[in-house]
Design brief:
Blueprint: E1 2-9, H1 21-29, E2 31-38, H2 45-50, H3 56-70, E3 74-77, E4 93-94, E5 97-99, E6 103-106, E7 112-115, H4 123-127, H5 129-155, H6 164-171, H7 173-193, E8 197-200, E9 207-211, E10 214-218, E11 227-231, E12 237-242, E13 249-253, H8 259-263, H9 267-274
Parallel strand pairs: 1-2, 2-3, 3-5, 7-8, 8-10
Antiparallel strand pairs: 1-11, 4-5, 6-7, 9-10, 11-12, 12-13
Helix pairs in contact: 1-3
Bound molecules: manganese (II) ion.
């Protein structure tokens, strides 16, 4: 097991068929951390409201988090919009897991990062909730088609993972504008707060980048891209793609990759990581 200082996860969407809990558990088996931040949309109550789906894997994840918190890791949960019902529990604890509305994490090298889910910077969710729900349902459909496509690819013995959802988002101009607008408004907010950066989620588009002097970091998701952010002991932040246990795993970093990290780089992950992809809402923005 690899010891890192911090693990940042978001948009796991437990309670949906699209949730890739098996891959997430495989990632967690290989990463131990002092801090674990769960940055929203961990449990998808919107989907559970439509139909109950709760396989053993999803329970295992919750149990693992409770266990890590009990054994001394600091586990912090920031609810998102799909688990917004839990926002009223901000300031309380669930087992040893702290529930907060947002927080600031100081990295080992002294950078102060705002932690939030980030849906308040999404104009669609904020002002047109029904549009967001509609977008959520079409996204679910897309992910199901994606699963079917992966199955067909496996039957045809085609290697690798190709994401229909990712492809659609790269091709739909509205989705790209949406991601760009979101990143800019989050970065603007963080700059005004006088912080060094932000770690958020919500738009399912994992990245570590500089936007006008602040570090913008998005964890991505565990329904399609299977990405996490880790902080190493020296404060270096890294985007980890965990597409499957022994293949397709890759990393990107905000510093030069170390020897070990460089050895796990895979072309697919590099290509996918560089593309802007995976916004949950394939809808045009109004206004
Ligand atoms: Mn969200």
């Amino acid at each position: 097991m690899k010891k890192v200082r911090t693990i940042f996860l978001s948009d796991i969407h437990l309670g949906t068929r699209a949730c890739q809990a098996d891959r997430l558990l495989s990632f967690l088996r290989e990463h131990d951390a002092e801090y674990v931040y769960l940055l929203g949309d961990i449990i998808d109550f919107w989907s559970l409201g439509r139909a109950i789906y709760w396989p053993p894997d999803h329970n295992t994840f919750i149990q693992k988090m409770l266990k890590r918190a009990r054994h001394g890791a600091r586990v912090v949960f920031v609810p998102g919009n799909h688990d917004e019902a839990l926002r009223e529990y901000a300031g309380t604890q669930f087992g040893d897991i702290e529930v907060v509305r947002d927080a600031v994490h100081t990295t080992a090298d002294g950078r102060r990062l705002l932690l939030m889910h980030g849906d308040e910077f999404d104009q669609v969710t904020r002002h047109h909730r029904w549009v967001a729900v509609l977008g959520d349902m079409s996204y679910s459909l897309l992910l199901r088609l994606n699963a079917l496509l992966s199955w067909i690819r496996r039957k045809l013995h085609r290697s690798g993972y190709w994401s229909l959802a990712g492809y659609a988002k790269r091709k739909v101009k509205g989705a790209l504008d949406f991601i760009y607008g979101y990143e800019e408004s989050v970065a603007h907010h963080v700059r005004q707060m006088g912080l060094d950066g932000v770690v958020c989620g919500h738009i399912h588009s994992a990245v570590i980048k500089d936007i006008g002097g602040v570090t913008y970091i998005n964890c991505g998701d565990w329904v399609d891209s299977c990405t996490a952010i880790v902080e190493h002991g020296d404060g270096r932040l890294e985007l980890v793609h965990w597409s499957s246990r022994d293949a397709e795993c890759g990393v990107e970093s905000d510093a030069e990759p170390s020897g070990a990290a460089a050895a796990t780089l895979q072309p697919l992950s590099l290509v996918r990581g560089r593309d802007r992809e995976l916004a949950p809402l394939l809808v045009e923005r109004e206004g």
